[in-house]
Design a protein that fits this description.
Elements: H1 21-34, E1 42-46, E2 61-64, H2 70-80, E3 85-91, H3 92-98, H4 100-109, E4 114-119, H5 154-160, E5 165-170, H6 174-186, E6 191-196, H7 208-213, E7 215-217, H8 227-234, E8 240-247, H9 254-257, H10 275-284
Length: about 290
């Protein structure tokens, strides 16, 4: 399938030239195309931020929600129609900051969705304040003496909670990122892909070259079913590992746990509407 099937005509792309978001968009389109996923069977869900604009530039079903509140929407969409492919995309601030509690409990629920997080270690939409993943001593126009807080470690949190699929990629490596994305989308259960991507305007420290110099790829000897080993890799900071850290295929997905699908596997929208049951429910709440 031609990746151009996902192109939005006359899209006014509001990203700075050189932004890492461009390569993430390109990589995602190519991944979907190679997997022969059509725009009709795909739902892109996002929050607020530069990363949250990505669904505006890809032809598919789209829901753009509130800051930090996109994961509950993704879960609900998958629950109503499990046949849809649901991809949630937003940034480190939206997902780990404003949406931090949703992020944690979404891991626990384990809906069958793919969660792509653009991690540039800064708030790029609001002019460069420190984000939850900004490194210690990183100075900004707001944190003029440098960040004093320990950076939020999403991979360690996800592995600690036995997330279904945990990975990290780098937007500058399109081929490697594409393979990680395809594996995440195919995976049954919640899949987190934290993608390092430079903010060329507001983050002059964590540049393309910085990420190249400070990352390495996990080799084939890494056992991503070994949770303790995966956690050790997730807390490495001298150099940051890239690749698939952890898989947990034991968890039941959120949709499978719903009583609505115990005997009938058809999506809710295909079922008969029972007005009498709805009226009884409404009456019971008065």
């Amino acid at each position: 399938m031609d990746p151009k099937v996902f192109d939005v005509e006359d899209a006014d792309v509001a990203w700075c030239p050189g932004c890492g978001n461009f390569s993430i968009l390109k990589t995602l389109k190519e991944s979907l195309s190679e997997m022969e996923i059509t725009p009709q069977e795909l739902v892109m869900v996002s929050g607020v931020g530069q990363a949250g604009k990505l669904p505006h530039y890809i032809k598919s079903n789209v829901f753009n929600g509130l800051h930090g509140r996109s994961l509950p929407v993704s879960t609900a969409i998958k629950a109503v129609n499990p046949e849809l492919i649901v991809i949630n995309v937003s940034g480190d601030g939206c997902t780990y900051g404003e949406g931090g509690n949703h992020f944690i409990h979404n891991i626990r629920r384990n809906p069958d969705i793919t969660n792509i997080v653009h991690n540039n270690m800064v708030y790029g939409l609001t002019k460069g304040q420190a984000s939850p993943t900004s490194q210690r001593d990183y100075s900004t126009p707001l944190q003029i003496e440098g960040v004093a807080l320990e950076p939020f470690n999403p991979l360690a949190i996800a592995i600690a909670l036995k997330a279904s699929f945990v990975a990290r990629a780098f937007s500058g490596d399109i081929n490697q990122t594409k393979e990680i994305l395809k594996k995440a989308i195919k995976h049954k259960g919640y899949a987190l892909i934290d993608i390092f991507q430079p903010c060329v305007t507001f983050n002059k420290v964590n540049t393309y070259q910085w990420f190249k110099n400070n990352t390495y790829y996990l080799d084939e000897s890494h056992d991503y079913y070994n949770r303790e080993e995966a956690f050790k890799r997730a807390i490495e900071t001298e150099k940051y590992p890239l690749g698939i850290f952890y898989k947990n295929s034991d968890n039941v997905t959120f949709e499978e746990s719903l009583s609505s699908y115990k005997t009938d596997k058809s999506p809710l929208y295909q079922r008969d509407f029972h007005e009498d049951k709805l009226n009884k429910l409404i009456e019971s709440m008065k």
